Amino acid sequence: MTIKIGDKLPEGTLSEFIEVETEGCSLGPNTFNVQDLTKGKTIAIFGLPGAYTPTCSAKHVPGYVQHADELKAKGVDEIWCIAVNDAFVMGAWGRDQKATGIVRFMADGNASYSKALGLDADFSKFGMGTRSQRYSLLAVDGVVKQLNIEEGGKFEVSNAETLLGQL
Fold first, then answer.
1. Residues 37-78: pLDDT tens digits?
2. Does domain 13-166 have CATH number 3.30.930.10?
3. Catalytic residue at 56?
4. Separation between Cα atoms, residue 6 and residue 139, nearest integer Å
5. Which of 9, 51, 56, 160 is catalytic?
């Protein structure tokens, strides 16, 4: 079943590569509980098929980096990029996209969170296995307030500009 507006985000975990060790976060991949991270916060989340893929790298991520200050000015506490890749790849991709400290690159290595959202997709014909659909959502205190799911192969409604206009 696909998540919809008004639903609570499903329980689950995502991993993030931490560049600088802090209290409670060691250097390298760290696993976080989504319920804990979203409690009391407004989170803009966008999901995409994979790190370093053409549309994701050229359009999807850059839009959220470019509009991060505007999103935050409208009440967004954090921006997350979720993809079915490991935390090492997501960390490297975030650095390449110059998104460190702007967008959190959250790894869904086995697609379990994408499946829990009902937003997984079969990319086997491209040699990529199970991935995430392309989407954006706004979660307030863990509840979905906006949801934009792309039609297969499209990039029209999950961009930063659309989500910004919905705030």
1. 999 999 999 999 888 887 767 788 999 999 999 999 999 999
2. no
3. yes
4. 9
5. 56
